[in-house]
Write a structure and sequence with these properties.
By secondary structure, the protein is α+β, with helices and mostly antiparallel strands. It has one domain. It contains four helices and four strands. It has a four-stranded mixed beta sheet, with no helix packed on it. The chain is extended.
Length: about 110
């Protein structure tokens, strides 16, 4: 069962509103559009996990999206927290363009 639904982040909503209100020749518009595209790509990546999660039995799992928690004096954010009777799973989604290269020598140095 989805306990906390995902919402379009406030930063994206603000940037969208700003792009509608600025004149097309505004000098900051390209920077704003670039920031908006990056944030929308990240949000789209977070939403991409919704389809696989939809196959889970709703009565067996609690799903919390975009969870903001406090650790003493600091706050941190989790993209999705999946909770069952046996475990809790933190799902952090990254939406990256291009090719990823994993250096096997670097990875093996962490295994020591």
């Amino acid at each position: 069962m989805i306990v906390k639904k995902r919402k379009v982040p406030l930063a994206i909503r603000k940037l969208r509103a700003l792009t509608y209100r600025l004149p097309p020749n505004h000098p900051k518009l390209p920077l704003i559009m670039n920031d908006l595209k990056k944030r929308e790509a990240g949000y789209k990546g977070e939403c991409s996990i919704d389809f696989p999660l939809s196959f889970l039995e709703p009565k067996s799992y609690f799903i919390l999206h975009d969870l903001r928690l406090q650790d003493q004096s600091r706050f941190f954010q989790l993209d999705t927290l999946l909770i069952s009777k046996k475990f809790a799973l933190i799902i952090e989604v990254k939406n990256m363009a291009g090719s990823l290269y994993f250096d096997p020598h670097l990875i093996s140095s962490f295994e020591r």
